[in-house]
């Protein structure tokens, strides 16, 4: 089954065709990050305007690459139904203006092309990056292992941080999450305090990597400048707002140079990833999953991937899974994959964007 995925929850306009929930036939992402870098963060209306500009070209590009849809400039092209079986679209959470562009476009195309339409939660969608493989980069499929249930998943994105157990597809139990800021938001906000650009996660990650390459690996253990909130609490909650305030206080009246920025980046990255790894392993010890799935934009962070991979390696009977970095950040391939494994089409007039959706909705 070939599903066209559409994802417009924030500042990426994405479309992808995925075969049987696993094989990526096309994956197109247009990002408006450069525009938001100029304003130091996302202005929702600007993001929505960019979504409108990109949505049709991105979808048609994905169909051209994925199922060889022939296009010309004639408006009647829209009536050429492509050889796909269904359309999947992110309905939330996210920015309402951005979400509406994807949802309303998907509804129109589903109506015109007479294709079933599957609404997808962006957060559970992220988890399915672990079912995907790219025909170009994984030709032999040797690198790809299908995760076994029950799975423990850590979903870390710009606006959410959740630990969940999956007994099977669509059988999800929430274990814990952030009480305040999300992990990605903490990267973004502290990066701004350091004068690094938007988006902050990749900027801090790069700056920290520069620092760590000049120090021995054992040096990581000495990075303890910032607090690790809730670490000694026997639950699966996270809290990052105190860490953010601590960075703010530390940087007050400090003159920053590039060496200091690198050092602070490594300290911030170590504090955030310590919290994420500690609670993940606590949950893994209690729930004894067969697989651990790391997902969401922050899963692109090299240090987090390394620390979690090493920690899960020591756990008998549990495999570690994380997708290549470009499949962790927002794209539509995991939306199509989610729809394949949780195939619940809905009438187009019952599908609405919901910016407040939680991971268990
Ligand atoms: O999932 P995502 O692409 O979009 C949302 O659904 O929010 O996640 C975006 C978040 C941003 O906060 C971004 O700074 C963070 O993921 N991020 C990273 C890295 N790449 C993206 N954080 C740390 N290290 C990275 N390499
Ligand atoms: Zn996301």
Give an overview in words.
The protein has 361 residues and is α/β, with parallel strands linked by helices. The chain folds into 2 domains: 2-132 and 328-350, ATPase, nucleotide binding domain (Nucleotidyltransferase, domain 5); 151-322, 2-Layer Sandwich (Nucleotidyltransferase, domain 5). It is 40% helix and 18% strand. The chain is built from 11 helices and 11 strands. It has a 6-stranded mixed sheet with strand order 5-4-1-2-3-6, sandwiched between helices. A 5-stranded mixed sheet has the order 9-8-7-10-11. Strand 8 and strand 9 (171-177) form a beta hairpin. Helix 5 packs parallel to helix 7 (241-251), helix 5 (183-193) runs antiparallel to helix 8 and helix 6 (200-213) packs across helix 8. The protein starts with a strand and ends in a 20-residue tail after the last helix. Zinc ion (ZN) is lined by residues 122, 126, 157, 296-297, 330.
Please supply descriptive tags for the structure shown above.
361 residues, six-stranded mixed β-sheet, binds 5'-O-[(R)-(carboxyoxy)(hydroxy)phosphoryl]adenosine, five-stranded mixed β-sheet, Nucleotidyltransferase, domain 5, 11 strands, alpha/beta, 11 helices, binds zinc ion
């Amino acid at each position: 089954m070939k599903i066209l995925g559409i994802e417009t929850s924030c500042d990426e306009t994405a479309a992808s065709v995925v075969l049987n929930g696993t094989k990526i036939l096309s994956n197109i992402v247009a990002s408006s990050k450069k525009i938001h870098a100029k304003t130091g963060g996302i202005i929702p209306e600007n993001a929505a305007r960019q979504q409108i500009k990109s949505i049709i070209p991105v979808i048609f590009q994905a169909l051209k690459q994925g199922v060889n849809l022939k296009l010309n400039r004639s408006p009647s092209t829209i009536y050429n139904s492509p050889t796909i079986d269904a359309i999947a679209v992110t309905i939330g959470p996210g920015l309402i203006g951005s979400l509406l562009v994807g949802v309303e476009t998907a509804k129109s195309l589903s109506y015109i092309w007479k294709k079933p339409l599957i609404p997808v939660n962006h957060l559970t969608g992220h988890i399915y990056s672990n079912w995907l493989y790219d025909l170009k980069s994984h030709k032999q499929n040797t690198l790809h292992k299908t995760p076994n249930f029950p799975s423990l998943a850590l979903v870390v994105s710009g606006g959410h941080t959740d630990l969940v157990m999956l007994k099977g597809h669509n059988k999800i139990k929430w274990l814990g999450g952030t009480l305040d800021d999300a992990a990605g938001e903490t990267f973004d906000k502290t990066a701004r305090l350091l004068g690094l650009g938007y988006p902050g996660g990749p900027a801090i990650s790069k700056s920290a990597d520069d620092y760590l390459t000049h120090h021995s690996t054992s040096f990581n253990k000495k990075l303890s400048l910032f607090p690790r909130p809730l670490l000694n609490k026997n639950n699966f909650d996270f809290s990052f707002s105190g860490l953010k305030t601590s960075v703010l206080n530390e940087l007050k009246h400090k003159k920053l140079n590039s060496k200091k920025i690198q050092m602070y980046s490594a300290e911030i990255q170590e504090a955030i990833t310590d919290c994420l790894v500690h609670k993940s392993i606590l949950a893994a010890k209690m729930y004894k999953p067969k697989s651990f799935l790391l997902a969401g934009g922050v899963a692109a962070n090299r240090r987090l991937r390394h620390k979690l991979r090493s920690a899960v390696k020591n756990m008998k009977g549990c495999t570690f899974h994380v997708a290549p970095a470009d499949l962790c950040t927002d794209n539509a391939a995991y939306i199509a994959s989610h729809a394949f494994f949780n195939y619940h089409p809905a009438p187009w007039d019952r599908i609405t964007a919901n910016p407040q959706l939680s991971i268990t909705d």
